[in-house]
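Below is how a single chain appears once it has passed through the pipeline. First comes the sequence as given, then the structure the pipeline wrote out for it. We keep one example in the README because the format questions we get most often are answered faster by looking than by reading.
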Amino acid sequence: MSTELPAGAYDPGPGWGLRFWSVFGGQASSLIGSALTQFVLLWWITDTTGSVSALALAGLFALLPQALLGPIGGAFADRYSRRMIMIVTDAISAACMVVLIVLFLNEAVELWHVFAMMFIRSAMQAFQGPAAAASTAMLVPRSFIPRAAGLNQSLQGLMLVAAAPLGAVAMAVMPIGYALAIDVVTAIAGIVPLLVFRIPQDRAALEDSMGFWSELREGFDTVWGNPGLRRLYALMALVIMCIMPSFTLVPLLVKDHFGGGAPEVALMEGMAGLGMVAGGLIAAAFPPRNRIVCILWGFALSSLLLGLVGFAPSDMLWLATLFWSLSGVIYMVGNAPMIALLQTTVPNHLQGRVLSLLTTVMALAAPAGLALATPLGELIGIKLLFVVMGFVSAAIALLGFASRPVMEIERGGNQGT
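Resulting structure:
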């Protein structure tokens, strides 16, 4: 076996800032373009079909491949060139858009065409995401990793804020085929820096191959064999199972409890996005000394604020929006150290698999939570459902403080079963 590259031990050398910001900026451009395209396609499905089932299928095709293929994508990111994986996946996603552009401009597009392209793009994200996340620790000094994680969280919030208005403006000023071309341009912007700059990688780990399926299992074993990581992953799955349905059900809360419409929903979601951007920037500017404490308190307080949304009186939508926005801020403050924790405690040649496994756990927990929340909401009402989701999630997050392995993850004393 090769000598492990300690997590966060790589020295990127002088000039790392130009390389990191070029790659980060290119990937940010590509992600925003993809989010814009997703909004445009979902609106086209809504406008064309007016069908809830069609939208549900679109969501399934957009999310499920990424969740199911995540562990395989993580193994690829650790086994092969992460730089090449990002280039190829961005190129395939752009090619999908070119196909849709031709179909739209020739008025030959059908619903199944859109579903197929969304499926392929989601599958590509299962490979691109782990490769990009695992590359971060090799692009920056160890001391900058928490800030890089915060910047990535801000980007997630920015995507939420920018996608809808940018997509709406694009559709207002140009045919949908040309609006989709924006994604092709941003994908090229993501590829160019990867062609210019090299992404460092543990070459010894790449050469010391044990077989694909053995490496895939090694990613699972890394988490399962570490009591702290195993319990932290379980906690995060339960927290996400409780809170994620709120993002799907908030339009119903606004309509049924507050008597609002689409503009009020857009305002509430936009403010949440701004809160997430702010939270990511706070995490980047003030990285915590004790990450695990910040993670647990961040998820607990964010969940508590989610529960308070349900307590807002029906004539005080502004108060619910305030709670919702603050929840987004604190969620990002807690979530950013989670990624930095893994990037600094897991050996780099395992990070693709470990990070993708976290993504898969959370992605599978979200629909499970929605399946449980839907009948419960019909039984107790949407307002009380928000209270239950928030308070139960907060209690689950606080359970982490009672777990010694979780609290000692950063001390490196959790190896073994």
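The radius of gyration is 21 Å.

See the next section for the split statistics.
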